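Standup, Tuesday
Yesterday: got the pipeline producing structure tokens again.
Today: sanity-check two examples.
Blockers: none.

Example 1:
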Amino acid sequence: MSRLYGCKGVLGEPAKSWHLFRFIKSKYTMSSLVELMAELSTTCYSIGSCHWVEVTHINTPDDFYVRPTAYKSHLRKLEVYEGPITESKLKPGGVVVFKSQTKKRYVRGQIRNIRDDGNHKICDMFALDYGFSEAVPVEWLNSPKREGMPALAVRCQLELCQPKGKEFDKKAVEAMIYFVGDEAAKMIVRGKTADKLTVQLLNSCPDDISTMLAYSEVSSFGFGPNTANRMTCTNKPKFFYKYKKVQVGDSFPVRVQSGDSLQNFYVSDVKEFREYVAEFSQISSYLRLETEMRPEDVKVGKPVAVHTGYKYERAVIKEVTVPEEKAIVQLVDCGKVIEINMLSSRLKALEREYYFLQPALAIYCTADEKQAWDNGLQRFLYPGYEFLVTVLKVGKDHETPNVVSLARIEG
């Protein structure tokens, strides 16, 4: 296939954008990279906005990934690792630095699945800053030195680009790779769904990439049923918290999370609490980047993140006490039920699967108060106090408590 253009600079030099990127690079250090992500994160890709990007991976014209060119200088810093992965991070959803055969170097990735392959464990990885997937042995995984940074690659589809048949064939993919080339592209956001942007891509080709593919007769030009555009009304995927499953007779060490009596208190599994602490900084950084909710969108039962003064915590709306002003929420990782001001609490809607990978930390319990052996019930229920529980009767999530017996941790 002959290239359908021979001129460069059709778009002209993106002088203003590059001046902006130089300013950003000089202004932001690694310690303030989170703030950079907040300004240029995927949640800020409003319809009609323009961005200079690199196309990092192409599956098909309706499934590819881009990364803002401003992020390139930060990649190496994010790919520094400390050593072999810890056991707490070796689970689906964990973010690591892995040795990539695709890029021939170490890159950041998220574990999607862990499986056994004979004598080895294999991890199915998703490269957060590029968009490709790859299977690698667990020995190739390392703990990142810097945690808490969101994915830099954004999933996209071309506007007005539809397959000739049921799906795009190999020729269409090869043509897109050819027209995209290795140069930066100007991306105009034309539509947006929960997990994908619909975009127009322009580079030094005579026309935008969708039109070039149509000229080459490897695609059809027009809207399709999966196109996200200004008129699209898309239902976002709904996620719900998972809760620790226990059975009668289960016995395990716990720490107190909250409570004012043994008739109504919350604990967490000690091991799960330590894993939560290890990942909290990353979760909190992601939450800071999410868009704040509008008060009119606050609904009973909706998973949210609440700013409690110095950090964000996962929660669920229990009751709206004053419409668009106040609500009662339950913090699912400590169990507390509090009333909040919708604006000052900086509510964030939780609409990404990542926030639901780890079950709610708090386990709802009740026990006979005569079992408290300490010098006072107030001290016994102090957050952080550890003891053993044995499940006598199974409750339901945070609705009805698990009936438990208590015992000291010996040794």
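Example 2:
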Amino acid sequence: MNKLYNCLINSYYIREFILKKLSIYCLNDFLNSNYLSFLLKIFNLKNKNDFCYIEFISKIGGIDSKDINFFFFNFYCKWLKKFGFEYNICENNNNKKVLLIKNIFSFSLFKNEFGIHRIIRKNPLINSNKIQTSFLHINVLPKLENNYILLKKDIEIYFFKSKGSGGQHVNTTNSAVRILHKPTNLVINCQSERSQIKNKNCALKILEYKLLTKSKIENKKIINNLKYNLKYIRTYNFEKNEILDHIKKNKYILNLFFNCLINFLNL
């Protein structure tokens, strides 16, 4: 119990937004709390290092799907930063974006975001008063330790000059990185950072994620169980300035939610 408590208080989010809300300020409070069984059900030491990937995948339902993906991705990034989470961007395409959250118990905290998020709004990209319904799939996948062991013989790393805007340093040094994974022929490019080392580390994380999603064995039970239980998570009604949480049966004011003034994990 002591070890678990020490792990929990070392997490800024868990300490400030879960334990304090439950009036737990010391080990004695933790051991005698009426919520102890609830906390033990959510947090387990064997899952302490389970970081997680969050995928944002646009689905059918309107020509504004790319805009919705971009909007929600930016919101999550701002929310994570405000509430003390550390993350990396692993993929940033029009219809699919991926974050890696690197805090302890991340998968335990975010797994309930896995599902369908429904958006009701007027399309801001066209001159029309027509209200459209769009859908965003958010997938949450665990990053377990040793998902893949990348062997040096299996990868080739290339360095090249970054292209596009980013300042003189970015464009005149070999800071960009390309990694080829020979067994799968996957190619990963990363040039978002000024540092070659940071780009290399980022590219390796992206490769690990790509291999995880291609895996037919590792994490199959966890991922299939989540997909089997795929459900509506929230409906975001921009016209009514209202969010309906289908899991917790709560309603939120939409403006407050997207201004990061609501702790939507709120276990």
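Quick observation on example 2: The first strand starts at residue 51 and ends at 58. The two ends are 20 Å apart (CA to CA).
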